[in-house]
Every structure is written in structure tokens, then in C-alpha cells.
Write a structure and sequence with these properties.
Elements: H1 3-6, E1 12-13, H2 23-29, H3 39-56, E2 62-67, H4 70-81, E3 87-92, H5 95-106, E4 110-115, H6 124-132, E5 139-143, E6 145-146, E7 151-152, H7 156-164, E8 168-172, E9 191-193, E10 206-211, H8 213-220, H9 233-240, H10 252-268, H11 270-290, E11 306-310, H12 318-329, E12 331-332, E13 334-335, E14 344-348, H13 356-370
The structure holds pyridoxal-5'-phosphate.
Length: about 375
């Protein structure tokens, strides 16, 4: 196969992730690798971890770029905390809340699901009732930015209810970190994980995770060993902190790329970055409204990073529309997941993809195809 046919065609990624990355980040990927015990790597990791703390809004010492995608962060969070028979409460108002339930059940937890219609937030009172109904609660978990619906779940009220019962609060920030404020210390979140491929502006493959001292202590006090060796926090910590003992061969090129992506965030400034995401999303929704395309998520809690819209009734074959966007214009948008398959489109405006130019192109292409 020639190099030309082996390489993917250029794409503008406006789907639910991954997002496009900048030339600066791409260039960093191509540097020569260095060893996983090279002192320069630990200098890079220290800088990178400091920037991740700023992004998460935390002082948590144990904040690392975990190897693996967003699902690694999810699995790692639960595997360290849950022991068989533990009671956990999980919020489910979309596909990814459902994934949390699946993982917790596999770990032998007794799962209480607190749910809401997809497209709506989960009312905090439901969490209150759930934690009150249980004799003890190990943790409460929720997805901050539900990628399957485009809804932002407010965290503070759930944090309060959780800590009143002495439980830990676990939050999925895969589609929020870097695009909207997460501020885990202010919101009293114990464990928060994300992915690098959406609003953070790096390629897929790393899952930034931040763990509070309280959560770390709960993991350390387990009766049984963490059932998954690779994601055991204590073992990971022995690598990322002194004594820097070999754990696994960290994907150093992804770390180079993340280092640059985080530097870009620092250069842009967090507030300016959040504003860019809001502005570009507003531009998109205004343009779509002119094409007769309406938002799906509850407008009060609509994410500016993942724009969910109802597919107009006039569209006979939504897959064909997305295919034309991809093949004729190089533009990727997402379809619905789970129960929303065929009903909504999911348009990501995240990281380096969130530009006025990309949105203008998408609007022109969509208008052309729909007419
Ligand atoms: C909210 C949420 N959680 C978890 C994941 C899983 O991340 P990944 O596909 O990177 O493993 C995703 C992926 O889109 C997501 O949107």
C-alpha cells in the first residue's frame, strides 16, 4: 500500500470526539521518544501535572495523565474505590452514566441508579432520596458533560448530599475539561477523570485524572487488593512521584503532545478559552436555527462543547447526510447514541476544532446538502 492510500484524508472533526489538533501539538508528537525513567521526562511530567491541576481547578497532588482513553479514567476510578458489596449511587441521564453502572456492577457493587430523561439534568433531590435510603454509601458518581445528550449536570448540590453521607464524589469530565469550568476543589469532587482528545486539544490516548487525599486514603485502606494491577493508584503513584519506580512504558509522544496542548491552554487563558467555546457554540446554534434545526438538550443546561440537535423531519436518511458531509466536505459530525440513534445529531465544538471558520463551513455544507 502506498503512503498516500495508507494515510487518512484530511478531516475537520466536529463530532463527539476526537477533535482536530493544532500543528504545534502535532509537531510535538513527532519528536524522538525518550525513556520512561529519563530525568527530563519527569521534569516534563511535573510541568504537565501542574498545568493539569490548574485545568481541573485543584490542589490534588495525585493528578496525572493516566495512560489510556477516557474509559481508562472511568475504570481506574471505580476499580480503586469499590470492593464487593459496597453501595454506590450512579446518576444516569445518558449513555455514559450507563457505562459507569456496568463497570460498578462488574466490581460487585450494589448499584442504585438515579435517572432522568435523556436531555434533562438529574434533579439533586433524587440523589438525596437515594443516599438516604441506604445504610451506607461508598460513592456517588455522575457525568458532568453527558456527550450522548449535550447536557451539563450541576455538581455542587450533589457534592453536598454525597459528603453529608460521608461518601466520595466521582465525576466524569471527559467532555467538559478544557471547554467549560470544572473547578473540582470548589465543587468538592473527590475523583475526576477526563480524556485528552476533546476540549483539551491533544490526540486520544491519555486520561487526565485527579484524586483527592481522602479518596486515595479510602483506596489505601481497602480490605482486598485493587483487582486491576495496571490502574492501582498506589503503584502508579510510585512511578509518577518518587521513587519513580518503573510501572509501564508511558506513551511519551502523547505526553509531548499533551504538554504542548496544555501550554496552548495557558497561552490562550482559561477564561478566553471557555468564552471561545461558548461563542462558537452560539454561532453554530444561531446558524442551525436559520436552517430550521432545533436544539435537543434542555436550553438551561446545554453544553457549549457538545451541541445536540433534533434531526429535522424532512431528513429521510440522516446517515446519508453525515456521509455527504464527510466525503464531500471532509466534515465529521456525530449521530445519536443508544436510544437517541437516528433522532439527534451531535456536533462537537471542542478544543482546536472550536473555530468560527469550522462552524461557518459546516453551516454552508449543511445548507447545501439539506437543500
Ligand atoms: C462522557 C464520556 N465519558 C467517557 C467516555 C469514554 O472515553 P473514550 O472513548 O476516550 O474511552 C466518553 C467518550 O466519548 C465520554 O464522552
Amino acid at each position: 500500500m502506498s503512503l498516500e492510500t495508507a494515510l487518512p484524508s484530511p478531516r475537520i472533526l466536529l463530532g463527539p470526539g476526537p477533535s482536530s489538533v493544532s500543528p504545534r501539538v502535532l509537531e510535538a508528537l513527532g519528536r524522538n521518544p525518550i525513556g520512561y525513567l529519563d530525568p527530563e521526562l519527569f521534569t516534563l511530567l511535573d510541568e504537565l501535572r501542574a498545568d493539569l491541576r490548574t485545568l481541573f481547578g485543584t490542589k490534588n497532588d495525585f493528578t496525572i495523565p493516566l495512560t489510556g482513553t477516557g474509559m481508562a479514567g472511568m475504570e481506574c476510578s471505580f476499580v480503586n474505590l469499590i470492593e464487593p458489596g459496597d453501595n454506590v449511587v450512579i446518576g444516569v441521564n445518558g449513555f455514559f452514566g450507563g457505562r459507569m453502572v456496568e463497570i460498578c456492577k462488574r466490581l460487585g457493587a450494589n448499584v442504585t441508579v438515579v435517572d432522568a430523561t435523556w436531555g434533562q439534568i438529574i434533579e439533586p433531590g433524587k440523589f438525596y432520596d437515594a443516599v438516604r435510603s441506604l445504610e451506607s454509601v461508598k460513592l456517588v458518581a455522575v457525568v458532568h458533560a453527558e456527550t450522548s445528550t449535550g447536557v451539563r449536570q450541576p455538581l455542587e448540590p450533589i457534592a453536598e448530599i454525597t459528603h453529608d453521607r460521608g461518601a466520595l464524589f466521582v465525576v466524569d469530565a471527559v467532555t467538559s475539561l478544557g471547554g467549560i469550568p470544572v473547578n473540582i476543589d470548589e465543587c468538592d469532587v473527590d475523583v475526576c477523570y477526563s480524556g485528552t482528545q476533546k476540549c483539551v486539544g491533544a490526540p486520544p490516548g491519555l486520561s487526565p485524572i485527579s484524586v483527592s487525599d481522602a479518596a486515595f486514603a479510602v483506596s489505601k485502606a481497602r480490605k482486598s487488593a485493587v483487582p486491576n494491577w495496571y490502574y492501582d493508584w498506589q503503584l502508579l503513584r510510585n512511578y509518577y512521584d518518587a521513587p519513580h519506580a518503573y510501572h509501564h512504558t508511558v506513551p511519551v509522544n502523547l505526553l509531548f503532545a499533551l504538554r504542548e496542548a496544555l501550554s496552548e491552554i495557558v497561552d490562550e487563558g482559561l477564561e478566553a478559552r471557555y468564552k471561545r467555546h461558548r461563542d462558537v457554540s452560539a454561532q453554530l446554534m444561531t446558524g442551525l436555527a436559520k436552517l430550521g434545526i432545533q436544539p435537543f438538550a434542555n436550553p438551561e443546561y446545554r453544553l457549549p462543547t457538545l451541541n445536540s440537535v433534533v434531526i429535522p423531519e424532512s431528513v429521510q436518511d440522516e446517515v446519508a447526510v453525515r456521509k455527504r458531509l464527510l466525503y464531500e466536505f471532509g466534515l465529521e459530525i456525530g449521530g445519536g447514541l443508544g436510544e437517541l440513534k437516528g433522532k439527534i445529531w451531535r456536533i462537537g465544538t471542542m478544543g482546536a476544532s472550536a473555530t468560527r471558520r469550522n462552524v461557518a463551513l459546516l453551516l454552508i455544507a449543511l445548507e447545501h446538502i439539506l437543500n
